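$ ./design --mode recover --in tokens.txt
reading tokens...
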């Protein structure tokens, strides 16, 4: 078969093959067979050198034209197959099926609890305040009646940036900032991140607290009790029992820690005959620290003697763990969507 006839019959065979090719795989196999590096066309072209020198230019041009033509045929068939595939897909499309709802994200449990708690207190007339996470020694310690030799200032517990600048170890400095910028009466709630040099199963170097402060004339321990009892029952249910236990904080006097009846065992101390794992069998869990603002703090911020007030502080992750029954603090920081989705 001479050169040009071979080319012509190749085109004929290709047209036949393309008609039969029913899908992308067959099309590709055919392409390799005809146009591949060692394919049929390449084999014909390799015969160019056998031709007489004066025949080679025309034969070469013919080969190039055939090559272009073959490529065009492939492209055409590819498009036809694609369109047919899409038409078939459309034919299978059932517009009466329910749509796929887009997945909505969820708020992090820390955010949920912070919002819930702030909502409860703003409902009682508190304002939401904030302060810096990088804090001066004065606001974090000094003005809160923690003088330089106070053990809480130890490098072991506090992340220092310089001698006088540190990551706040609690939200209580926001109390001081609120009082230095406002005059009584005032009621503020301050949520935010706090930092401590602590990292183990139940402590993380960063966690969240919410601080509360109310100052006016004639504020008493009864206001503190009433406010915090109402708050705790709003979060954990109206049947929750509340207990105030004497405690100590440098910036409150007297001070107390508040326990609530355990939300897992309902205060019985037992779950399925065994000591409850949440309250360790005691029936109570600690939920916050509080007290009457120490007069030394009022002096530091220049408030008159006749005011009094109460303050409290609580850990947001702790409240979330108790409320949602989360057993492991690390889950708050791992950002595992399977965990987070449960709060959607
Ligand atoms: N700041 C205290 C802490 O981090 C909590 C607290 C706040 C206690 C306000 C009493 C009054 O432990």
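writing sequence...
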């Amino acid at each position: 078969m001479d050169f040009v006839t071979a080319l012509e019959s190749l085109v004929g065979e290709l047209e036949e093959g393309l008609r039969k090719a029913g899908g992308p795989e067959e099309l590709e196999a055919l392409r390799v067979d005809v146009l591949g590096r060692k394919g049929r066309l390449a084999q014909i072209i390799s015969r160019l050198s056998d031709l007489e020198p004066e025949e080679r230019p025309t034969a070469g041009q013919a080969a190039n034209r055939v090559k272009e033509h073959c490529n065009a045929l492939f492209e055409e068939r590819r498009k036809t197959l694609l369109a047919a595939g899409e038409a078939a897909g459309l034919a299978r499309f059932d517009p009466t099926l329910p749509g796929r709802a887009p997945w909505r994200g969820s708020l992090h449990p820390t955010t949920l609890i912070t919002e819930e708690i702030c909502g409860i207190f703003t409902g009682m007339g508190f304002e939401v305040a904030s302060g810096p996470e990088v804090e001066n020694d004065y606001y974090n310690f000094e003005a809160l009646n923690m003088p330089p030799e106070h053990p809480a200032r130890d490098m072991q517990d506090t992340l220092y940036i310089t001698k006088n600048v540190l990551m706040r170890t609690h939200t209580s400095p926001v109390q001081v900032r609120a009082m230095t910028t406002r005059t009584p009466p005032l009621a503020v709630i301050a949520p935010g991140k706090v930092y401590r040099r602590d990292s183990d199963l139940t402590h993380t170097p960063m966690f969240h607290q919410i601080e509360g402060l109310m100052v006016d004339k004639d504020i008493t321990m009864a206001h503190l009790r009433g406010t915090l009892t109402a708050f705790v029952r709003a979060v954990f249910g109206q049947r929750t029992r509340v207990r105030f236990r004497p405690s100590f904080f440098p910036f409150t006097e007297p001070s107390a820690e508040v326990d609530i009846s355990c939300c897992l065992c309902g205060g019985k101390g037992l779950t399925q005959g065994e000591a409850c794992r949440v309250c360790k069998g005691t029936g109570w869990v600690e939920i916050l620290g509080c007290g009457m603002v120490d007069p030394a703090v009022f002096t530091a911020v220049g408030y008159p003697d006749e005011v009094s007030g109460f303050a409290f502080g609580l850990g947001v992750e702790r409240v979330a763990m108790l409320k949602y029954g989360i057993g492991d603090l690390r889950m708050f920081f791992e950002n595992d969507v399977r965990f987070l989705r449960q709060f959607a």
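exit 0
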